[in-house]
Amino acid sequence: METVLKPLPAKGRKQVHEQHTFPVLKMSCAACAVSVESMLKSTPGVSDVRVNFADQSAWVDFDPLTVSAPGLQQAVQSIGYDLVIEEDGAAEKADAARHEQYLRLKRQTVWSIALAAPVMFISMFAMDMPYANYISLALTAPVVMYFGRNFFRNAWMQLSHGTSSMDTLVALSTGISFAFSVFNTFWPEVWHSKGIHAHVYYESAVVIIAFVSLGKLLEERARKKTSAALRNLMGMQPKTVMVISDNGEQEVPIGSITTGMLVQVRPGERFPVDGIVKDGSSFADESMITGEAMPAGKEAGDNVYAGSINQQGSLRITVIRAGKDTILAHIIQVVQEAQGSKAPVQRLVDKISRIFVPTVIVLSVLTFVAWYVWGGEQGISYGLLSAVAVLVIACPCALGLATPTALMVGIGKGASQNILVKDAESLDLAHKVDTIILDKTGTITAGKPTVTDVTWLSTSDPSKIESVLYAIESRSEHPLATAIASRFKDAADTGIVVTQFESITGKGIVAVADGIRYAAGNLRLMQAGGISVPADVDNIVMELRKLARTVVFVSSSQSLLAIIGISDEIKPTSKQAISTLRDMGKTVVMLTGDEEDTARSVAAQVGIAEFHARMLPADKSAFVEGLKSQGKMVAMVGDGINDSEAMVKADVSIAMGKGSDIAMDVARMTLITSDLTLIPTALKLSTKTVNGIRQNLFWAFIYNLIGIPIAAGLLYPINGFLLDPMLAGAAMALSSVSVVGNSLRLGMKLN
Question: 291 φ, ψ to 5°?
Answer without folding.
Answer: 80, 0
